[in-house]
Amino acid sequence: MLKSQKYSGLVFDNVKTIANDDAKTAKRYKALCKRAGGIFRTVGLVHFVTFIEAKGKKEPHYEMLSRHLQSEINEIQLLNSTDANDYLKKIRELNLPKFMQVSQTVLQLLQWHKRMSEILIEGIEDDSINEEAYDGISSPKM
User: Fold this and answer.
1) 137/132 Cα distance (integer angstroms)
2) 42: buried, middle or exposed (CB in 10 Å: 19+, 13-18, 0-12)?
3) pTM, to two decimals
4) Which of 14, 57, 61, 83 could make an S-S bridge to 29, C-beta 3.0–4.6 Å?
5) Rounded to the nearest 5 degrees, what angle is found at the Cα of 111, between the Cα atoms of 9 and 115?
6) Could you read off the pLDDT of 71-116 as tens digits, one per residue?
């Protein structure tokens, strides 16, 4: 099985659960997925993971994306972590080649999240997520 097929299958299963959730949360998740790749490219792996983990304590769609990425990374067997603190610690302690591999994989997963959320979550994404919601972290305008 190709990597992209495996990644798309993992992401499809996760996004499908969101699509059947509360419509408002699903639309916010979709909006986050559309912006997540840009945020990732702007701030990098450690800051991105820390950011969505912190925002996930207040916002359910951030928490969902964080859990999805963590489970997908575990499934791919890049990192085996038991909880969020362990996950963040392992990312911070990676050597450079492994760090680059994990970064590339997370970016590919985020691209699949964007695609799958656009397909599976109906309606226009919730625009109440705006640049101010990122607490100073902005993504490039597309």
Assistant:
1) 8
2) middle
3) 0.82
4) 61
5) 70
6) 999 888 888 776 667 888 889 999 999 999 999 999 999 999 999 9
Q: Domains in the chain: how many in total? A: 1
Tokens for 101? Answer: 């591999």
- The CA distance from 46 to 40, in Å, is 9
In a domain, 142, yes or no: no
Q: Report CA 18 to chain centroid distance, whole Å.
A: 13
Decide: helix, strand or coil at residue 19: helix
Domain holding 102: CATH number?
1.10.520.30
CA distance 52 to 62: 6
Q: Tell me, what amino acid is at 81?
A: S
Identify whether 138 is part of a domain: no
- Per-residue tokens: 46: 């450690």
Domain that holds residue 81: 9-127
3-state secondary structure of 136: coil
Give me the percent of the chain exceeding a pLDDT of 90.
59
Asked if the structure places residue 1 within a domain, the reply is: no
